[in-house]
Amino acid sequence: MAVIIVDYGAGNIANVMKALKYCGLSARLSDDPQEISKAQGLIVPGVGAFSTAMDRLQAKGLVQPIQAYAQAGKPLLGICLGMQLLFDESDEFGQRAGLGLIPGKIIPLPTETGCKVPQMGWNDNQVHQSRTLTQGLNQQATYFVHSYYAKTDPKYIAASVDFGKLAVPSVVCQDNVMGTQFHPEKSGLVGLAVLKNFKEMVDNYDFSRN
């Protein structure tokens, strides 16, 4: 069974697939709950609005399968909007519940930082927790496109970037559930290294225990 990219019309999938293939991961798109439950690794991608994405996941009956996969302790990675969906709720276009896999809330980037919203372009990561996913990421630049960010307990923030005086989470982790606010598939060799770190986690996970 391959790594499964959750298929809910998230967009930008071709680049993600290409990057995963480059990293040696066998990956395919699926919206089949059975395939999701048996995946060797699960990736939740995403661009666009939080509420629209959750509507699509609900309509396809994918919320519970994703939650069950995470609760089983298997490796799950959210990318950009997919990372934001991992949290409890968002303020984007009205309050909306998320997947509830990491405690916290998605709120707008403040304009009073003096930085342009959305954050669009390259920014340097500061690693706060040594985890498999963050290996080689400290002081390295990755590519961001977002107007909202995760407000969460520091214990879930593995890395951040400076947005004016605000430290914006760039990598979040809750045990086996991980997310990157940046797009690793658009972040050159650094982004590919992050995906290779995820591959290492997939390769080392003992799926026989599930």
TrEMBL record:
Its EC number is 4.3.2.10, 3.5.1.2. This is Imidazole glycerol phosphate synthase subunit HisH. GO terms for biological process: L-histidine biosynthetic process. It comes from the Bacteria. GO terms for cellular component: cytoplasm. IGPS catalyzes the conversion of PRFAR and glutamine to IGP, AICAR and glutamate. The HisH subunit catalyzes the hydrolysis of glutamine to glutamate and ammonia as part of the synthesis of IGP and AICAR. The resulting ammonia molecule is channeled to the active site of HisF. It is found in: Cytoplasm. It catalyses: 5-[(5-phospho-1-deoxy-D-ribulos-1-ylimino)methylamino]-1-(5-phospho-beta-D-ribosyl)imidazole-4-carboxamide + L-glutamine = D-erythro-1-(imidazol-4-yl)glycerol 3-phosphate + 5-amino-1-(5-phospho-beta-D-ribosyl)imidazole-4-carboxamide + L-glutamate + H(+); L-glutamine + H2O = L-glutamate + NH4(+). One of its GO terms (molecular function) is lyase activity. Residues 5-198 form the Glutamine amidotransferase domain. Pathway: Amino-acid biosynthesis; L-histidine biosynthesis; L-histidine from 5-phospho-alpha-D-ribose 1-diphosphate: step 5/9. The active site is at C80, H183, E185. It holds the Pfam family GATase. Keywords: Amino-acid biosynthesis, Cytoplasm, Glutamine amidotransferase, Histidine biosynthesis, Hydrolase, Lyase. Heterodimer of HisH and HisF.
